[in-house]
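Each lists chain and fold; for instance:
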Amino acid sequence: MAVSVKELVAEGLASSTAVVRSRVIEALVLEEQDKRVKAVLKVIQNLDQTRKDGFKLKPDVMTYDRDGKVASEGYTKTTTDAIKANQELISKLEGALNEALDESSPNFEKVLKLGSGGDKKAEQGDKKTEQPKVAV
């Protein structure tokens, strides 16, 4: 009595429920891990870019003393608002990273939102970071 290949395959599939279940779980875990890694990397990139944008924000008006040293600096309301928004975004991004990378109780919710573009302000950066043109 010869056992056909189809019968052997059917027996193997009938007993493979546990294997299929574990592979599905493994695939879903890997997918979520990849999603989290990409989100963390995106938030790190956004944080670096936001910091760079902050360095571009300079005083609108500077006065100098006789020695050529800066005596005072002046900012327009637009520049002041841009500096404040930049600092708030940095705090938001750092906070999300700290929560996600906390070993005791990681929370990826904010990082996933910021890293996937769910927060338009974080994704686009702060549009106010460009220096306004001031006629002197």
In short: The two ends are 101 Å apart (CA to CA). Helices lie at 5-14, 17-55, 77-100, 109-115, 120-124.
